[in-house]
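Quick look at the format.
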Amino acid sequence: MSEFVKITEQDSNHTDLEHKSVDQLVKGIHQEDLFAVSAVGQVLKHIVRLIEVVVLRLKNGGRLFYVGAGTSGRLGVLDASECPPTYGVSSDLVVGIIAGGDFALRNSIEHSEDDTTQCWKDLSEHGISAQDIVIGIAASGTTPYVVGGLRDCQENGITTGCITCNPGAPITQFSDYPIEIVVGPEFVTGSSRMKAGTVQKLILNMISTSTMIQLGHIKGNKMVDMKLANQKLKERAIGIIVNELNISSEKARNLLTEYGGIRQVLQAIKSS
């Protein structure tokens, strides 16, 4: 087995950054971002395998948990928090857990990621069970909080996946469905909030979006279960109803007021 190397900590391919113009900096970052997007394309089959298992777990009453620290943890919480308003699902169907708790979303609590047992404690507060699936997010693949969490999950018969940018990292040893994306050194050496964070966000988009489509929360290409939390979303909902039923905006607005949601309107009218 080859020796594990932290690619995410390797020296940047760009030097003398402080002497570059803004134009040069932006073009350099963009160049690296393009490489990162391409790198995701190299692991699509692994992403598909993980999503298929997530869908199966959720269809059978399980939940999806994301666990991470720092930037990785914040991205997991972000993806989870957007599922209820976008797809109308319960807030406990997709759960994001970050080392250090919610305070860590806005503040750096770097030492919180070094505890190998805290992740399991955090998951246990949510009543984690073998019905669920846990995805660890760690650019380095070595974060003790995440690695320890996935280890404890496997010991308790819980399916695991991971997203890391270092192939062969310790996190993969405790992941049933690992996703390893090679994005190379960061533009600023070791700043894994950049390319590594970008690919993590792209993959999380794929996981949650594909899963929610498979669970039936999209009709055509429209979010028919979204929560109508503001005027913009209400207007979007009216537009969907107008297009689906070929009626006036005024009638669509009245139906939306009467039934309370897009899906409810479509089901009521098409069954009448």
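Next, a different chain entirely:
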Amino acid sequence: MPHTPSGTPYLSSSDRLKYSAIVFAGGACYGILASVVKIAYGTGFSFPQVVASQAFFAFALFLLWALVDKVRGVTREKLTGTQRLKLAAMGCVTAGTTTFYYFSLSLIPASVSITLLFQFTWIGLVFEVITSRRRPTKAALLAAAIIFVGTLFASGLIGGGTLVEHLNFWGVVSALLSAVCCATFMFLSGRVEADKPVQQRGLWACCGYIVIACLLCPDYLVSGVLFEGIASFGLILGPLGFVLPMVLFGIGCKRISPGLSTIMASSELPISIACSIMILQEPVTALQIVGVIVILLGVVVAQIPSLRK
């Protein structure tokens, strides 16, 4: 397949639309998580139990995928011990994102948690500047400023009225830590065994995820919580929180430009806000909606240089 100067495959308009939609769907999967987690909390389950449910059910799905491949006679690529450890370490970082994010959801509104998590967009810019030792572009700096202003509105810190009074300090800190972990994961995902099959990357990343989940909720498998209804949440969180995004991003992101991938994956933010309004019936002000739109505008501005290519 021919490639463009930027390294992405040359695609027709219909193919570009198809793969863009796939990446959009991956971001939308993440957007649904906050509402599901909030409902699980309302049912009486704790945040360690919810994190463990997502980890174990995602791991079970990747194991099932491996068994199906074996039955079908699909040849899997052999990974060295070092490669497996690298992927497991990346899974630990993913677990950090989930743990901090889900903890913040137990303390502050979902709309605020997702807004703060979305700060990974400019935190990733900081990582890039540090590792490449290059000055950020004007578009990147402008985008970071736009996202910051949008966050002030979307989080309710400006014009939020009583919303600010209900913001828990540790909830805000935890949401920001989830953004740091998310930016770290995105930085590593393009560098750690990126050429390996997605099902193998996912399985070994899940191994690291399971380690963190066991430390967080060591009695998950023996406490009987699986028979108390949490399995139904695990069946949703496992696929939406890990398996489907990894598969969909693995299919779509390598076929369209990084800039377009980032914009399409930003579907997570509006989907999450919409779910918090329609499903959780959380109060969201007009200024918060404006803030979300401003943040998405900042994401687009940051990708203008790559989109021009």
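DSSP finds 14 helices and no strands in the chain.

See the schema section for token definitions.
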